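Worked example (supplementary).
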Amino acid sequence: MSASQKLLWVFGGIVALLSVASATGWLLQRRKGDTAVIRNLNERVRAWWLMVAVLGACFWAGAAATLIVFALISFFALREFITLTPTRASDHKPLAIAFYVLVPLQYWLIHLQWYGLFSIFIPVYAFLGLPAIAVFAGDTEQFLERITKIQWGVMIAVYCISYAPALLVLDLRGFHGQGALLLLYLMLVVQISDVMQYVFGKLFGRHKLAPLVSPSKTVEGLVGGGLAATAIGAAMWWITPFTPLQSALMSLLIVACGVLGGLALSAVKRSLGAKDWGSMIEGHGGMMDRMDSVSFAAPIFFHITRFFFSG
Amino acid sequence: MMERAAAAGLVGLTRLLVGARAQWRAEPGAGQSLYFANHCSHLDTLAIWSALAPAQRAVTRPVAARDYWNKPGLRTYLSGRVLRAILIERRRDERAGDPLEPVFAALAGGDSLILFPEGTRTADRLPQPFRGGLFRIAETFPALNLVPAYLDTLHRSLPKGSHVPLPLYCTVRFGAPLARQTGEARDGFLARAHAAVCALADPARGAAA
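After joint prediction of all chains, the assembly is encoded as:
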C-alpha cells in the first residue's frame, strides 16, 4: 500500500469514528436532554470535525501548507500563553521578536530541513538572545521572572510544538518521504489518548488523580484511556516504520509524555490564575488546551524515533 | 457600500490582531449610550468599536483627537468615512470656541459615543483622573446611558511609545450604566465615574461573560 493510500484509510477511519461520536451525541441529547455535559460533548465533537478537516486539508496540500498551519498553531498558542502572563511595557521588544521573528523563523528552518539549526535555534540563540534584548529596556524589576516566562512560552508554544511537523522532514530507514504518516500517527495517538481518558474518566472515574492541578483527571480515566490509546496506537503499526511491538512501546511513550505535559501545563495555567488557556476552540478551551500534550510528546517522539530509526 | 466593507474589514483586522472580545458585566441599557473607558493605546477606539454588537456599532461614533486622526490619507478616510469620528481639538492655541461643541451636536442628533475622559493615553493599568468633559455631557443629557468600559491587556499590546502591536487577546469589559444622582457636584461625579472604570479592571469579579 502506498503512503497516500494509507493516509486515505486512516482518514476514512477517523471520519467513521467521528460519525459514530456525532450520532452518539445526538442520541444522548434526544434521550437524556440538553445537559451541560452532553452539550460540551457535542461541542467537542463538532470542534473535532473542524480540526480533522484542517489536518486533512494540510496533508492534501503538502508539507509547506502543514508547516504554515503549525506555525499558526504556535502563534495562537504563544498568544494565549503571553496573554495570561503579566508582562510589562519594557518586555515589548523581546515579545514582538518572539511573535513576529521566532515563530516564522523556526518553521522556515524546518522547511529548509536544517536539522542542525532548527533543533538548537531556540534553546541556544533565542534563549540567550531574548534576555540580551530585554536588558536594553533598563528595567530590572522582576527581570528573571519576566524573561523566564517569555522563554517558557517560546519553548513550549514554538519550539516544542514545531517538533510535530518536523516529523515531515525526518529521514528514516526504508520510510523515505512518508513523514506525513508519522505526524498523523503522533497526533492520532496523543489526541485519542486525551479523548479516551475523558471518556473513561466520565464513565468509570472515581479517584481523582491530581485534584488541585487538573480536577477532571481521574486514575481510572488515565489507566483505561492510556491503555486504550496504546492499543489503538499499536494497531496502527502499518502506517509507521515500527513493528507492532515497537509501535506499542512508542504509543505508550507518547501517551505518557502527553499525560505529563497535560499535567505540567495545567499547573502552569493555574499558577497564572486561569482555568482555560483561551476560548478559541469551542468546548475545548484554547489552542494550548488542545496542544499541551502534543508539546511534551512531539519532541520526545521525534528524538527517540530519530535515534533508533534514522538512516 | 465601500464604507461598510471597510468597516467590516476594520473590525476583522482588529479582532485578528488584538482579540477585542466583549464581556458584558451588566445588560447593555436600551437607547442612546456614551461608553467611557480608560485610554492606553492608539488601538483603544478600534477595540471598543469592534467589541460592540453590530447594531450598537452602527449608531456609535468615537470621540477622537484631531491631531492624531486628521492626518491626510488612510487615517482621515477611516476616521471620517468609516468610524464617523467626532474630532476634538486638544491643543488650546488651535481652539476657537467650545471644543466639546461637536460632541453636543452629535448627542443632540441621537448618536451614541465612545469617549476617553482622561484626554490622553496612560501607560498604567488604571486610568488617570478624568477631565471635566464627561461631567458637562452628563449634565446636559440626563437620559443618556453612561456605560463604563475597561480595556484589559491593551496597555500591554501597544504601550505608549511602541509602534508594533503585540497580538495578545484583549478584553473589553462593559459595566452597568452609571446611576444618576440629581445635583451631584462635578468632582464627586468624576470620582464615581473613575471608580466605575477601575472596578472593571479586576478580571476575577463577575466572571460571567
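Two points are worth noting when inspecting this output. DSSP finds eleven helices and no strands in chain A. Residues 1-61 of chain A form one domain.
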